Structures are given as structure tokens and as C-alpha cells.
UniProtKB/TrEMBL annotation:
GO molecular function, one term: NADP binding
NCBIfam families with a match to the protein in the record: PRK06349.1
One Pfam family linked to the record: Homoserine_dh
Organism the protein comes from: Mycetohabitans endofungorum
Taxonomic lineage of the native organism: Bacteria, Pseudomonadati, Pseudomonadota, Betaproteobacteria, Burkholderiales
Protein's pathway: Amino-acid biosynthesis; L-methionine biosynthesis via de novo pathway; L-homoserine from L-aspartate: step 3/3; Amino-acid biosynthesis; L-threonine biosynthesis; L-threonine from L-aspartate: step 3/5
Record domain ACT: where: 366-447
Enzyme Commission (EC) number: 1.1.1.3
The name this protein goes by in its record: Homoserine dehydrogenase
Keywords: Amino-acid biosynthesis, Methionine biosynthesis, NADP, Oxidoreductase, Threonine biosynthesis
Active site location: K216
Record-listed NADP(+) binding positions: L17, G18, F19, G20, T21, V22, G23, S24
Amino acid sequence: MTHDTRGMMEPIKVGLLGFGTVGSGTFNVLRRNQEEISRRAGRGIEITRVAVRNPAKAQQVLGDALGTVALTSDFAAVVDDPSLDIIAEMIGGTDIARELVLRAIHNGKHVVTANKALLAVHGTEIFEAARVKGVMVAFEAAVAGGIPIIKALREGLTANRIQYIAGIINGTTNFILSEMRERGLDFATALADAQRLGYAEADPTFDVEGIDAAHKATIMAAIAFGVPVQFERAYVEGITRLDALDIRYAEELGYRIKLLGIARRTTQGIELRVHPTLIPAKRLIANVQGAMNAVLVYGDAVGATLYYGKGAGAEPTASAVVADLVDVTRLHTADPNNRVPHLAFQPDRLATTPILPIDEVTSSYYLRLRVADQTGVLADITRILAALGISIDALLQKESEVVDASQAGETDIILITHETLEKNINTAISRIEALSTVRSGVTRLRMEALN
Ligand code: HSE
């Protein structure tokens, strides 16, 4: 097809798998903005078939808006339909979605997906299958919803050696943490509020245990550092055990606690971790509230860059899905070797840089413990830290809330350390907990300066 006949080209045909929040959002955005989208893409983009578990219900919701779209409950039939150029997978999960995506690729179709779990766990298999068939797998919507962070990492920042990424990439947990801080709620109450308001799923495990954020961090780490996706090597810790007391103490010390997805290049390897993290309250990213997402990327040439926006929801996610549909439409006739590689780096040039076990990660730490309020206790603790080369940055002593008479004469100590290896802090904690004057376990939280 030559350029001057472009305007006459048939629209590219898309088959949609799934018609939930993201699927229906994609349908609506594409239909509403079709004129501008086709002016950008160079030809129309049309969803002509939709596979949905309950076509009758979808029919009811869509009514006349459905136009010429054919609904079916046969997902494989859509994937196998020779009239379709692109399959947009919007069903989620890793089992059926994996089968359908691989089948679509095998059929020579391009794939657009919002499925972070699928790519974080099975990305290597899927990208290799796509390479063999010369098709594209586009996944902007898989990380941070509407924020074009994949585009930024893979193309906008391509000149840079990326040093680190730190992201608030799960809106549910950011909403819960914001509620805990602003309203002094405990985790369970803030979660119940989030569920009532529709920010958290009935089964919130993936979100509150940090798994969703780890899927997204895994994908970003692969693109930033040119390594395969390795979800199984990510360290994952959620917010379920976070105590409202620590949010308060952190605040007094000038910090906010956020669930961060961190991917960092070090001389030993790559850190890939998700956990509650104290960050200085004055950082822009510390002030990302509610269900919003933000990703901080540090490149050697550009310095710090920050991307902010909605990480979930029908139309913000559809914004990313439709951008991928446009990308595929623009590039599907290009030589596969000249397209942007799935993971930013050429597939035969991916590195074997190891992902570091959490013991080998370097961080500064917030420690909270309850001690007998008597002479020499602090000296014992600082001696243990000094013996392991751990230096103290700040110390706060707080009158403990006395729950019963046995706790009279006790006090809370909050310590902030300088950077050390995680295995060193763990050794220090077990030695501190063995002191007879220490009356509680040590609460330990990691910190990031992000400067
Ligand atoms: N459940 C996710 C969140 C959105 O709370 O951010 C989809 O990844």
C-alpha cells in the first residue's frame, strides 16, 4: 500500500477478549475519539468482535452503541478469526490469558494487553513467541494505567543509563496508606473503607500484599536494565502488617510511608523489591495521595523525572490500551527488526545481571522498639549497631502508651540508621531483641532518600 492511498485504507480490525472495566472503557474511548485517533494512526481502528463470558448482558449494556460488533462467548473463535489483525486481551489472570495470547501470536496476530501478571510471570515465553512470528505485544496499560511509563522508559529515555525507578504503582494501597495517615486509621479499617468506596477488590490480596506492584516493578526493571522479566526473583512485602503508630512516628521525623516498587542498578546487581518505604515528606512523590500513581525514574543524562496520573479505572487504562492500538496500527507494516523491541533492548542483547537477594540490598532503616526506661539501654543498642558498622542518623524517644501496669517504666525508641546491608541490620535486630532490657520485637522499615 503506498502512502497516497492511506486515507482509503480499510480500518485495522481488533478483536477484544473481555468486556469488563478495561474492555468496555477501551470500546468507549475508541468510539468517542475515533476521528482524531484515525487521523493520528493513519487509518481507522475498529473493534469488530468481542468475546465476553455473558454476551446477553454485554448486549444489554451496549444496546445500539454496539453497532456492528459481533459478540460471542467463544474466546478461541475470536483469536482464530482470520479477519482480525489485533487481539486486545482484557481478561486478566495468567492461565486462560496465557493460552489465548500465545494462540493469537501463533495465528500471526498482534496483541495488546493490560495484563501485568501475565507478562511479569510468562513474559519471556510470550516475547520469544512474538519475536519468532514477527508480531508485536504491546502492554502500556499493564504498568501504572494511564501513565505512559512504558513509552517513557522504552523510548523517551532511551539515551540514558537508567539508575533507578521508584514508583507508587498500586492505587489501592496508596489510597489505604493515605487514609491511615490522614485519618489515623488502622490498616483493617482503611481497607474496609477502600472496599466500600470501590478502591479495593473484595479479595484485595494481590494489591495489599504488594504482588500487583511487584508485577509492575518487574516489567519496568526489565525495560530499564535490559534483563528478562523475573518476577520470581522480586522481593515482595505488602502493607498488611503496617502499624498506624509507625506512620505517625515517621511523620514526626519528616517522612511518609509509601508502598514503593523499586528497581535499582548497583555494582553487584539489580535490586527489585516492593515494600512499605519511608521517604522524605518533602519529595514530590511523597505527596501523591489517594489512589493516584507516580513513577520516579532517574537516568544518568536526564536526572530525575516524575510521571504522575491515574493508575487504574476504565478510561485511564483505556487511554493506554488505545495508544498501543495506534502504535501497532502505525508499525504493523514495518520490518519487525526495526520496531521498538518489547523490552527496549534487542532480544539477543539482554543482560544476565543478577537480581540481588534481599539480604544483599543496601538501605537505611527505621527501627522501633520498646525498652525498659533505665540507664545503659541505649548504650547497649548503639554498641550492637556500631559493632556491625551501622551508623545512627536520628533517634527519637517516646513515652509509651501504657496498656497495663506491667508496661510502666517502658519507653519506645525509634532509630533511623544510615545505609547498610539488609543482612547487617537483621543481625543487629536479633542481637538487640536478645537484650533483657528490650521488651518488644523490633519493627523494621526500609527508607529511601530519593535525592
Ligand atoms: N489494582 C491496581 C491498583 C490497578 O490498585 O492500582 C490495576 O493494576
